[in-house]
Amino acid sequence: MTFVIIAVVAIIVILGIALIVSYNRFVKQRNLIQESWRQIDVELHRRYDLIPNLVETVRAYAAHERHVFEEVARLRTQAVNVQGAPPEQRAAAEGELSGALRQMMISVEAYPQLQSNQNFLNLQRELTDTEDRIAAGRRFFNANVGDYNTRVEAFPSNLIANGFKFEKAGYFEVRDEQVRSVPQVSFGTIGSVAGEQAPPQMQAGPQSSGQIQPEIPGEQGNYQGQPQMPGYQQPGQPPHQGQPQAQPPVGGPPAGSPSPQDGQPPFTGGH
User: Of 80, 59, 79, which is closest to residue 68 (Cα–Cα)?
Assistant: First the structure.
């Protein structure tokens, strides 16, 4: 009887310890998510502060892009007004604002004089750095949310989550299709990427074997691509290096005549 009581007490203690450990882990993960979200919120506020200065600088050079500036201002105000909303709603507003900013930067490329403005270049650099930090913070935040949501749904930790009202957290996802799309690479031409033309020597096709090439001076009757007999040399063509040159017979019998027999005088070319 005593052994049974001890076993029951031990099981209760083990379950209590597991309950405390699991609960504390949920609290730690929830606080980590909140801390990572605060880091994103800091960078978002920094972007809100940079946008008005950037718009005013661009407006001085690109007054014709008034509709673009008005759209950026409207979406910035919309993003500021949803600061207390869940991450999903904030992500939707920030995605629209990012798309408007990208459209504005594309529009100002038609004004080369703006590219030499030092104030614009500094603001553009600061905005780019801010966007990079927002992207890094978003990845860290979503990774923590993924681990937390997995524990909320997995067994047996889901029992603790349901008992103590630990609900799933929302992701801060990018809604801009231009950011999510994969760049297209075209291999339509040999040796070309993204429409880049191949070198001329790669574009030219092989010449037909029956096409006659122009004659080379000093090589009459010998077309380019035709093999030559070993040891054969065209008139006016220098001998090949390392190839013996045929010497004409001097004072000897012409080619094809029999060699002199014993007792007969050699042939001297006379008649």
Answer: 59
Task: Say if CB 37 and CB 87 are below 8 A apart.
Answer: yes
Distance separating alpha carbons of residues 33 and 80, to the nearest angstrom = 21
- Residue 175's pLDDT is what? 64
Q: Using an 8 Å Cβ cutoff, are 54 and 107 in contact?
A: no
Q: Which residue's entry shows tokens 């379950």?
A: 15
CA distances from 212 to 48, 226, 235 (A): 72, 10, 21
Q: Give CA–CA dist 60/82, Å, rounded.
A: 30
Query: Would you state the structure tokens that stand for residue 199, as one six-digit string?
Result: 């070198």
Residues 50 and 44: their CA atoms lie apart, in Å, by: 10
State pTM to two decimals.
Answer: 0.61
Spatial separation of the C-alpha atoms in residues 143 and 139, rounded to whole Å: 6
Domains of the chain: 2-180 (1.20.1440.20)
Which of 178, 185, 56, 173 has the alpha carbon at shortest distance from 117? Answer: 56
Q: Which residue has the tokens 């809100």?
A: 48
Tell me how long the chain is: 271
The residue type at 40: I
The SS3 of residue 144 is helix
Residue entry with tokens 């007792």: 263
Q: Which band of pLDDT confidence, cut at 50, 70 and 90, is reported for residue 146?
A: very high
